[in-house]
Every structure is written in C-alpha cells, then in structure tokens.
Write a structure and sequence with these properties.
about 150 residues; alpha/beta; 4-stranded parallel beta sheet; 4 strands
C-alpha cells in the first residue's frame, strides 16, 4: 500500500467523518489493485486512475455511511446493479452491522467481485434481475434502493 493512497483515502473520508483502520485501508487498496487488474480484460469501469477511483468510486460510495448511523442492529442490505461493486463493497468494508448482497444481471460482473480477497466483510453475490429477485427475496432486506 502506498503512502499516497493512504493519504488520499484519509483526506477523502475525513470530509465524511469517517476514520479508517489500517485493515480497512488495506482492504481498499487490495480492492483497488484487483479492480484495475481485472478491468484490463473485463471493462468494468472507465475510472482506473488511483486518485479518481478514490474520489469517484470509494468516497462517493461512502457518502451513504451517514444514512447507516441510525442502524443499531445487524441488517441485510442489497446493492442492486452493483456493477464493479459500487457502492456495496466500500460500504461493506466500513460498516460493521450490515451484510451486503451484491446483485447484478450480468454474471461476468458477479464472478469478478473479489469476495475471497475481502474475507473479513459480509458479502454475498447474486446474479439476477431486480424484478425476479425481489419477488422471492425482497422481504429479507431492510433497505432496498438502487443508486445511480
């Protein structure tokens, strides 16, 4: 993990009132490297420069953390149309009281998601369309919202 990465992440999340642990910083850096490497063959995102990923993917995703401050018990949340894992993976890295299901209609995106590399966070993956998924599983989620 580079000093520049750590500094940029800490600057970005400070504006959001978030303080990251060393482990969380390592998870973000690992995810960044994995994303850039896989993007070379999968075309997951046009944003791959370190500063831009930190600002436009990681910090933008973490803007939602303030909405989770009222959640007192463990809940299940779903990221519909997760694509390359945004905002679900960044939120899962910093949120202790939630399990995240990352859902996308394209199996290639679901297979990309680095679940094994981010062992310490609660992630599940599902390849489905939202309308099909919600009929069977929607009642199990506390918060359902597609973010664009």
């Amino acid at each position: 993990m580079t000093e520049q990465f750590v500094r940029k992440m800490e600057e970005g999340v400070k504006l959001l009132g978030i303080q990251l642990s060393e482990k969380q910083l390592e998870q973000f850096y690992d995810y960044f490297q994995f994303l850039v490497e896989k993007n070379k063959v999968m075309n997951l995102t046009a944003i791959t420069e370190e500063d831009a990923v930190i600002t436009k993917h990681f910090c933008d995703s973490l803007c939602l953390v303030k909405g989770f401050s009222d959640i007192e018990k463990t809940v299940s949340l779903i990221d519909v149309g997760t694509g390359a894992g945004f905002p679900g993976i960044p939120l899962a890295i910093v949120t202790d009281n939630a399990e995240f299901v990352l859902m996308d209609s394209l199996n290639k995106r679901i297979k990309f998601l680095p679940q094994k590399r981010l062992k310490a966070i609660a992630l599940r993956q599902n390849c489905s369309r939202a309308m099909n998924f919600s009929v069977k599983w929607g009642k199990f989620f506390s918060l359902k919202h597609q973010i664009k």
